[in-house]
TrEMBL record:
Segments forming domain Nudix hydrolase: 3-129
Protein name, as recorded: NUDIX hydrolase
Residue ranges of the TM segments: none
Annotated keywords: Hydrolase
Keyword Hydrolase in record: yes
Organism of provenance: Gordonia alkanivorans CGMCC 6845
């Protein structure tokens, strides 16, 4: 039987149109660049999880915006991560990779095309108007 784990992510952009990505330290997607996020803890709302994960992985406090998309990411041992990705706005903080983020940075659409990114990320960013 498949185990579903609810997770969240946040799409952050800067004034130059760059998108914030982290390089995952752990599965799923270890070594891939993707938007920051992680699992929703028991008793935690999805929005609270977005705020917590952004602070842990990027050092930024964020305000959660609209839900952009939901995707299923297969994990090991018959696990599926049900990931809800939101638009978000930085309220405060300084960029600092932490927790599951091995690295973090701001990337243009051109730079993203050269990175090993998580499957489907570029398609979703383009479809939802994050990238031109």
């Amino acid at each position: 039987m498949t185990t579903r784990i609810v997770a969240v992510g946040a799409v952050l952009t800067d004034d130059e149109g760059r998108v914030l990505l982290i390089r995952r330290r752990n599965p799923p997607q270890a070594g891939k660049w993707t938007i920051p996020g992680g699992k929703v803890e028991p008793g935690e709302s999805i929005e609270a999880a977005v705020v917590r994960e952004m602070l842990e992985e990027t050092g930024f406090r964020v305000e959660v915006g609209e839900l952009l998309w939901t995707v299923d990411i297969p994990g090991p041992d018959d696990v599926v991560f049900e990931v809800h990705d939101f638009a978000a706005r930085i309220v405060s903080g300084t960029l600092s990779a932490g927790d599951d983020a091995a690295d973090a940075g701001w990337f243009t659409a051109e730079a993203l095309a050269e990175l090993p990114v998580s499957r489907g990320l570029l398609k979703h960013l383009r479809k939802h108007g994050v990238l031109g």
